[in-house]
Amino acid sequence: MECSLTARDRVGIQDFVLLDTYTSETAFLDNLKKRFNENLIYTYIGTLLVSVNPYKELGIYTKKQMDIYMGVNFFELPPHIFALADNVYRTMTSESSSHFILISGESGAGKTEASKKVLQFYAVSCPSTRLLDSVRDRLLLSNPVLEAFGNAKTLKNDNSSRFGKYMDIQFNYQGAAVGGHILSYLLEKSRVVHQNRGERNFHIFYQLLEGAEEDLLRWLGLEQNSQKYAYLIQGACAKVNSIHDKSDWKTVQKALSVIDFSEKDIEHLFSIIASVLHIGNVQFEAGSRGYATLNSNEEIRWLSKLLELPAHVLREGLTHRKIEAKAEEVLSPFTVDHARYARDALAKAIYGRTFTWLVNKINASLNICCSLKSLVGLLTLLVSCPISFEQFCINYCNEKLQQLFIQLTIKSEQEEYELEGIEWEPVAYFNNKIICDLVEEKHRGIIAVLDEECLRPGGATDLTFLEKLEEKLPGHPHFITHKLADQKTRKTLGRGDFRLVHYAGEVTYSVTGFLDKNNDLLYRNIKDVMRQSKNTIIQQCFPAAEPDNKKRPETVATQFKNSLAGLTEILMSKEPWYVRCLKPNDSKQPGHFDDNMVRHQIKYLGLMEHLRVRRAGFAYRRRYEVFLKRYKALCPDTWPNWKGTPAEGVKCLVEHLGYKPHEYKMGRTKIFIRHPRTLFATEDAFDIFTMEILNHGITFKSLFLSASVTLATKIEACWRGLRARRERERRAWATRVIKKFIKGFTNRNQPVSMDNSEYLAFVRQSYLMRLKGNLPTSVLDKRSWLTPPPVINMDCISFCFQLRIKALTSDIFKGKKESYPQSVPQPFANTSVKIPRLVFFHPQYSVPVIKYDRNGFRPRYRVLIFTQKAAYLVEEAKIKQRVEYTSLKGVSVSNLSDDFLILHVTCEDIKQKGDLVLQCNYLFEALTQLCVVMKNRNLVKVVQGSVRFDIQPGREGVVDFKSSSEFMVYRAKNGHLMVVSVSEHSWPLHHYPRLLATCTVYLEFSHCRSCILFFLFFSIAGICSDKISMTPEQWMFDQAVN
User: Fold this and answer.
1) Nearest-angstrom CA–CA distance, 1005 and 1010
2) Res 863 pLDDT > 70
3) Collapsing DSSP states into helix, strand and coil, what is residue 516?
4) Closest residue by Cα to residue 188 from 488, 364, 388, 40
């Protein structure tokens, strides 16, 4: 919005709040006229949108325009109906609250078009699915249906809404439109039977006659000539250039099918519309006794067919009235006038109730999804043309809404001030409660007096109603009649008129027709007639269960007052937004601005009052981020980037600009500027700054071009240097790789070392990749295998050794020792500790152990070494004990998960040392290696409970084994060595596959034919070990020994 202030002299100001002379109605009008002359039809008063009907196409409602306004700050772009609709939608989705948009104005000001634009914007901007598209189409197409049945040509507007409409658009939690609901009120039913000259009946009658096919018209008993129907000729303007009844008929037909009307519903609906035209052609004449008789049976025959009623019942209902006298019912014939009144009342009742059914049917089709989050309501107010009963009701509605409007506006202003921590200053405004009370007060209000006259038996007339008002309201400052007025005012009032001083000005009403329109009675026997109809819509409009007691129904004014109270309650629960529509002239001429007419509407719509409320405190308010972003260039401290908080930046900026303390206030999130001239000065300074930048643009450009050449040279040099360094690093890496490959190739037949490890890995990978593409046809076919490199054969030898050793271990410990299954996947090493070559020239295996003294069981760290002839216990290359294999009687281990072993040694001399009690982390590996070296597979004995050992000849010790939750080794009170191991679940036989899986891993890296054959034999033998005489472990042991 701020960007348009530089052109304010030509196009005016986009927000009336920024008018310096905001109390001047002339200044308000001049600003509106400036913008209208520039085809700028929208202007803000804060968040209120003022719209002036241009009476021409401006091209500002395209899909491109919708995209521009989607998700944009409200004041960031020029005023538009799309900006308001988008801001309502985004506020609704972010705050999860319900809102309503109140669209008001005179007939022809563009209220209907404004509501259409809001619906079109939501149809495009909301999320879309197949279900949501269906809802969107029904919402959009409900408009032409309601316009056809509820709009008509008036003197001021060719498409005037003759009913009030409140539409709720329902949104789900994703912000998608999922349904809607329409509330209609005060349909102008009197238009069905009477129109002023220059006006038309409701559009649907003309659309039916102009657009329907001949077969349909023939079935309905109608002709295309509207001059043949009494209800259509009173206005004498059936043809209007701006109305295209034939094309509108097609639109209505399509809309009804989309809104989910069945063919039967459509057939019955147009039967009713045709029946209204036939009712209007029913004529009466006085019989010999002065009572009304029908002079034509043709219309009764068509009515009987269309309403599906017996002809004689219908004839009786139109010419007689049922009267209850004590316990009897008698038929009283009508006079001609009473018959005409009953006929017109029936036509109005049928059309009015059918319109209500139509709205309910549309609501049912829009009620698709029940997962609602919030609502956006659209309220369009009806404006009646003649100063009559309908206009009195509408002006009463405007008074109530104006009261609500001012209250909500002041409330929202006060809440914003309190939220920002700024002191609220009370606002003086005209409180129109006195006018609302004048109309609606019990017992003394105009509606109460009107209802009293309608219910009073005897000769109640419109003039007696006026007299009662003069009795009840003498001296009221807002009520004037010919009798109560002074001499000068009486000249402007007729004897049947009264004048109300509304908030927007004086309005004079004629009491003629007030009683009849307020009564709107339908005789009870006519209701009984309609209940006999077979037409499904008529059956719903006149239900058999409808209460038909003797209590008089509510009058039209009372019904309207109650519905208005309900509407006010709905609106009070939602956040308000406003659109005020103005018509620039009465002749619908583009570009013509009638000052007097617009001035009257400004006052009538309360725009000046609203502006005074908005300007009571501060004219301009913006969030700190937005204000700082636009004007930070005006202060050296905030340009180009402010490092602190936005509030601190704005404070620094306004102090630099010289704002006086009384001209602004700093809120919690916004800056408030009191006078528009302060903002104008800031905007002018910003404009000057911008122009200086543009004037120096050429100099800046030349400096930039000269500097850019040098800069380009530097960038090119840096880039070339970077590429050269990267190329040097790449070549150095390639050199290292080539050298390593050559070195590995020359040492390929040597043992694995740092020099050839990567090369050998490359050879293995290459062989496996070639083997992948050339797999043998048979595992046993030697000729189809690719010749493996030497490194693969070495791996195979190692693998075969592991298989043999593992098979021997399985034979010794499988199913006997609890911790055996955990050792299966761990490969065995040839030696577990390195031994100095100076001590042992031919060690077969070595492993670290803990040796427990035979007396006292003190632990000592040792190394156990196996050679071809003896086992040695060594401490730092010093032999502590030598055990000849010939003197080794056996080895004992427990069946639990501990890692203790006892070497039983033959002790013949008392000087000889006894048995060895050792603890070894590599228990299975060490004992398997010992069996292989001694070539004795039965050397190891697995025992349960306790193991006795010789401390020395003739003296024994005991080692006790048990399991618990914690591993411990200690000397018990009885002198035994207690070994407590952690209990583990023993593996059953079905865990053989785990050993086979380990073998398979080795197999994937070898692919040696002999290993494959050996593995297959071992697998088959392991699975079928209970069916063959030699177990795989026995076979393996023999292979290992040999």
Assistant:
1) 14
2) yes
3) helix
4) 388
Query: 166 vs 135, 183, 564, CA distance in Å?
Result: 18, 5, 11
Question: What secondary structure does DSSP assign to 136-197, as a single string?
Answer: HHHHHHHHHHHHHHHEE--SS-TTEE-SEEEEEEEE-TTS-EEEEEEEEE---GGGGT---T
Q: Are 468 and 449 in contact (CB under 8 A)?
A: yes
Mean pLDDT of all residues in 20-48: 88
* Closest by CA position to 828, among listed 750, 927, 918: 927
Strand-by-strand arrangement of the 42-45 sheet? 42-45, 48-52, 575-582, 99-105, 374-380, 164-171, 177-185
* Spatial distance between the Cα atoms of 372 and 170, rounded to a whole number of angstroms: 6
Is residue 806 over pLDDT 80? yes
User: Given this model, what pLDDT does residue 427 score?
Assistant: 67
Q: HSE, CB side, 13 Å, CA atoms: give it for residue 105.
A: 28
CA distance 126 to 134: 13
List, for residues 633-655, the tens digit of each pLDDT value.
888 888 878 888 888 888 888 88
Neighbours of 618 (CB within 10 A): 23
Contact 277, 350 (CB under 8 A): no
- Cβ distance 864 to 846 under 8 Å? yes
Residue 766, pLDDT score: 87
How far is Cα 562 from Cα 122, in angstroms, rounded to an integer? 31
CB 364 within 8 A of CB 355: no
Listing DSSP states for 937-948 in one string gives TT-EEEESSEEE
pTM for the whole structure: 0.59
What does the angle CA 242 – CA 248 – CA 252 come to, to the nearest 5 degrees?
150
Inter-CA distances, 286 with 293, 528, 962, Å = 6, 25, 126
CA distance 894 to 817: 7
Dmax (CA) for the chain in angstroms is 163
- Residues contacting 649, CB < 8 A, separation 6+: 624, 628, 632, 638, 642
The residues near 204 (Cβ < 8 Å, ≥ 6 apart) are 148, 149, 252, 273
874 DSSP β-pair partners: 863, 879
CB atoms closer than 10 angstroms to residue 334: 20
CA separation for the pair 76, 626 (Å, rounded): 10
Residue 104: strand, helix, or coil: strand
Sheet order of strands, 620-623 included: 620-623, 670-673, 664-666
In contact, 321 and 334? CB cutoff 8 Å: yes
Contact 530, 276 (CB under 8 A): no
Q: How far apart are CA 422 and CA 668, in angstroms?
A: 9
Q: Are 118 and 101 in contact (CB under 8 A)?
A: yes
d(CA 978, CA 969): 6
Q: CA-to-CA distance for 823 and 831, rounded, in angstroms?
A: 16
H-assigned helices in 578-696: 595-604, 607-614, 624-631, 646-657, 676-695
What's the DSSP call for residue 15? B
Q: Work out the angle at residue 287's Cα, subtended by the Cα atoms of residues 282 and 291, and round it to the nearest 5 degrees.
A: 80
Residue range 170-195, pLDDT digits in tens: 887 777 777 788 888 778 888 898 88
CA–CA distance, 596 with 425 (Å, rounded to integer): 34
- Residue 54's pLDDT is 92
In the annotated binding site for ATP, the residues are 105-112
Determine if the peptide bond prior to 640 is cis (ω within 30°): yes
Name the DSSP class of 633. Answer: G
Band (275; pLDDT cuts 50, 70, 90): very high
CA–CA separation, 970 vs 960, rounded Å?
10
Instruction: Return the SS3 of 362.
Output: helix
The Cβ-side half-sphere exposure at 938, using a 13 Å CA radius, reads 0
